[in-house]
Structure formats: C-alpha cells, structure tokens
User: Which sequence fits this backbone?
C-alpha cells in the first residue's frame, strides 16, 4: 500500500515552511548539530530514481485534506520520492509523539532538538482519522523519544488500542524506535499486539558510528528477536538503505543476522541525501543490484522482500501485508 506520512495535528506547526530540498538556513535550523559540518555536494540522480512530479487530482485532494486539518507530512519534510503515488491513493502512516527527534542520525531529515510533551489525546485522534479514512491497513511510526522514561512505549500501546476500538478491521503496523536503555518498554508495545512490528536497522554495523551514532546494531537485532520470543504470531520487519558506503558482503551478513532473529520481512532502498549537511551518497545502486539482493534475501528464508531504488519501509505496506500473510500460510501448508 502506498502511504501518506502524517504527523500529529499540531496547531503550533501551522504555517511552518517545509524544508524539502532546502540546504540553507532553514535546513540548518532543523539540524543545528549539522551546522558546522562540511558541505557534501548533492549528486544528480540517475534516471531510475526519477519520478513523476505530483499533481494528480487524487494528490490535490489529499493535499487539501492535509492543509485543512493543519497536518504536517513526513513525505514533504523528508522529500520522499513516492509522495505523488502515495498521496494519490490517500493512505496514511501516522507519526506520533511529535515532529522533533532526540537523536541526530546523519541520514535523516526529521528535525533534532528537545521534543514537546506528549499529547494525551493523540491516540484517539489517530484512531478517529484511521476510521474516517477507512484504512484497511495503517502504519504508526514515531521520532526517537529518549527523553521519556519508556521511550514512548505506552503511547504506542495506547494508539494501537485506540485504533482497535475505532476501526476493529484495520490491521496495524508499527515502525518503532529502538527503546535503547528503556527496560520493559518493548513488552508494553508487544502486549498491545500490533499485526506487524517494524524496526529499521537502517545500515550495516560498520556505518553505525557515522550514520546512526545514537543506536546500537546488535541491540536492534536483539529487539526484533525479542518480539518473536514474546509473541511469535506478530510479523517482524526491518529495513536498510544502501548507497552509504556499505560493502555487498556486509549487506548479506545483515540479512543473516535478521534471519537469525527470525525476521519475516526486509526492505532495501536507495539512500537519498536530504541536504548538503547530511551524509553523502557514496553510490547509486543499480536496479539490477537491487534485484540481486531480493533474490538472495528470498533464498535466505525471508517471507517477504522489497528491494528497489524507491523502496521505503511503509511504501505499499497494505499490499505487502496481504502478501506476507499469504506467504506464511503457504509455508505452514508446506
């Protein structure tokens, strides 16, 4: 399912300019920690990365809904290449717990800083929006909230429960932070029983210090493994970006690590540089290389693999969930 990424309905953000594609003052105000880093020139995208500019009637209708409700979209802020396709279909991935992250990953365009307190009404707001939109499958994600004692685990659980009440037939996929040094947080989220638990590794372990310095690779692997230990019926999913300087054999080892944790679904997409202050693109991986990764991942035992230049973790999530269920059922039949 193509998806729209919607942040919470925060009136404080009405009228705020998007930083999509900007590399000057506005970009630096979003990422103060990157202000003194040297510029990394943004490379021209190859033909296989280019997408049709948004502007269809469906896209315009979605844009109107977003503006009228004072919503801010991750699609716009992150400059997602799939925005035209996703908005045309009016599907939604909600970002909860605000728009400000406590971490400063070198690849990410979500702004960094001290977040606002949680909105206690947000779970009900997300549930109401899910029901009004008639979503068959919804994805809930968040910023990292290292400032909270539980990393936002209870807020995730409340949101899942609210959606179940408001829209019982909707399947729920969550894309969580790593809950690093938050004992008991994972158990709270798993107990709420999402249908899919997604936590992205983002890149290979050798890149963590420069790309994802606030995270720990093997903690993330263990997190995904624990989900299966706590509730084997929940599908698990993880995604990475390529083009950050990783070696092919490192990607294959990462696949093995995910399969050791019994992860069902892997997504692999091309890293695209948000601004000159972000990590540079080391390589544009070709469509043939993505296809090869897909083939290898299936041979390693993943139930589902999405591997292409424009793959993103929530892109086509609904269709992928249906295929994921079918693959599990086929495997059970032998």
Assistant:
């Amino acid at each position: 399912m193509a998806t729209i990424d919607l942040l919470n309905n925060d009136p404080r953000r009405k009228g705020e300019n998007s930083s999509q594609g900007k590399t000057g003052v506005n970009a630096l105000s979003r990422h103060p920690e990157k202000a003194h880093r040297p510029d990394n020139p943004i490379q021209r995208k190859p033909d296989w990365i280019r997408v049709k500019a948004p502007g269809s009637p469906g896209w315009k209708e979605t844009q109107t809904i977003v503006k009228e409700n004072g919503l801010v979209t991750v699609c716009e802020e992150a400059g997602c290449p799939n925005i035209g396709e996703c908005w045309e279909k009016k599907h939604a991935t909600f970002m909860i717990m605000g728009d400000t992250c406590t971490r400063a990953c070198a690849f990410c365009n979500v702004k960094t800083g001290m977040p606002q307190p949680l909105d206690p009404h947000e779970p009900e707001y997300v549930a109401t929006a899910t029901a009004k939109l008639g979503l068959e499958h919804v994805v809930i994600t968040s910023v990292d909230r290292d400032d909270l004692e539980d990393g936002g685990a209870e807020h995730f659980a409340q949101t899942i429960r609210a959606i179940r009440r408001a829209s019982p037939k909707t399947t729920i996929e969550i894309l969580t932070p790593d809950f690093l040094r938050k004992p008991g947080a994972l158990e709270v989220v798993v107990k709420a029983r999402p249908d899919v638990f997604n936590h992205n590794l983002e890149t290979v372990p050798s890149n963590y210090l420069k790309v994802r310095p606030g995270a720990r690779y093997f903690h993330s692997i263990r997190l995904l493994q624990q989900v299966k230990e706590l509730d084997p019926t929940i599908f698990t999913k993880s995604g990475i970006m390529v083009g950050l300087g990783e070696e092919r054999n490192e990607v294959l080892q990462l696949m093995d690590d995910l399969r050791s944790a019994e992860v069902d679904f892997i997504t692999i997409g091309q890293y695209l540089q948000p601004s000159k202050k972000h990590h540079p693109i080391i390589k544009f991986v070709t469509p043939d290389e993505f296809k090869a990764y897909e083939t290898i991942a299936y041979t390693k035992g993943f139930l589902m693999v999405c591997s292409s230049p424009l793959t993103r973790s929530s892109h086509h999530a609904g269709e992928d969930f249906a295929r994921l269920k079918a693959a599990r059922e086929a495997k059970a039949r032998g």
In short: The beta strands are 4-7, 92-96, 100-101, 111-112, 137-142, 171-175, 196-198, 235-242, 265-270, 304-307. The first strand starts at residue 4 and ends at 7. The CA atoms of residues 293 and 299 lie 10 Å apart.
